[in-house]
Amino acid sequence: MEYSPPPLFKQGAPARVKVTVFALISIVLLLVDARMHTLAVVRQVAGAALYPLQMAALMPREAVATMGGYFSSLSALQKEVRELKSQQAATAQAMQEARMQMAENAHLRKLMGAREHVPVKSLLSEILYDARDPSARKIVLDRGSRNGVALGLPVIDNAGVVGQVTRVFPFTSEVTLLTDKEQAIPVQVLRNGLRSVAYGRGQAGTLDLRFIAPNADIQVGDVLITSGLDGVYPAGLAVAKVVQVENSAAGAFGRVICQPLAGLDRNRHLLILMSLPELPPRPPAEPPAPAKRSALPKMAPLDTPRAPQLPPQLPPQLPSQLPSQLPPAQKPAGAPAAVPATQPVAPVTQPAAAAPAR
């Protein structure tokens, strides 16, 4: 009995024949497509139909690639953020330094401009720190006696008077600000020339005009300048601005509060005026005025001869009467001794006194 495979597994033409046939069909299709371009539409339709299947087949690979790229990009972004933050900090610091330098340059330009307007020689200095005493208004500068700084020299900035040098060391100097309680400066109102003295008010940071008459011509907004009467501050430097005026008719004096124009708490560099203003010499002292004399002519003294002093004349006595019998009250102090009774008493004659010359 001959064995035959089932119908499902029946083999047709041999494999070599199939390969040959399909190879020939492929060659024909290639030639037709290359020469006539007739299969372009078929290719587009097949690509469009198979595109969803292609994307579905590529999804696992794309998911793996996307996940790897996500983690790699996340780490790269974190690193980049750290670098940008450090760069931003460095840039911010450089920007702050640049701003500080710009502000410092602008302030120095203002100081140089103020230096040209000051009639005396000045020295540029830098503030090192505030004084240790919290109750005092003092600062320490980086210039000392080696730089020619001396006691009493005024210190200014581009806006006005700052204070006065009160202590000097070889490399540093201490400046007492205008607002210190121990400081006073003679000022005058720029508007009308009214003179007064401004005193510091300590921690309040303001100035006070004392002993002002209640009806004095001072208004809010008036500018006070140095009068130059003390021989320390040159005349015409700005000092303060009036911010409050209290006039009380009942009080003996008014109250005037002023705000300093100089940047006492803002500046970094200041100018030290190296010489005091030259004042005119004092006039010589006047000789004492002669004593006033009478308008009458002076009379020469008269030479008047003095009469000789004689003892007083006694009354005539009896021979039997002794001087001891006279009462004590009638016996003169310069009476001559008693004459014995045996001798007669001679009469005494008194010469006439010469008449005074007229």
Write the layout of secondary structure elements.
Blueprint: H1 15-36, H2 40-117, E1 122-130, E2 138-141, E3 154-156, E4 161-168, E5 173-177, E6 184-189, E7 195-200, E8 207-212, E9 223-226, E10 238-246, E11 254-260, E12 269-273
Antiparallel strand pairs: 1-2, 1-12, 2-5, 3-4, 3-12, 4-5, 6-7, 6-9, 7-8, 8-11, 9-10, 10-11
Description:
Belongs to the MreC family. Residues 278-358 are annotated as: Disordered. It holds the Pfam family MreC. Residues 278-290, 308-318 have a biased composition (Pro residues). Keywords: Cell shape. This protein folds into two domains: 14-116, no CATH class; 122-273, Beta Barrel (Thrombin, subunit H), CATH 2.40.10. It has helices at residues 15-36, 40-117, and strands spanning 122-130, 138-141, 154-156, 161-168, 173-177, 184-189, 195-200, 207-212, 223-226, 238-246, 254-260, 269-273. It is rod-shaped. The strands form two sheets. A six-stranded antiparallel β-barrel has the order 1-2-5-4-3-12. A six-stranded antiparallel β-barrel has the order 6-7-8-11-10-9. The chain is built from two helices and twelve strands, in the order ααββββββββββββ. 28% of the residues lie in helices and 20% in strands. Strand 10 (238-246) and strand 11 form a beta hairpin. By secondary structure, the chain is an alpha+beta fold. Residues 318-358 have low confidence and may be disordered.
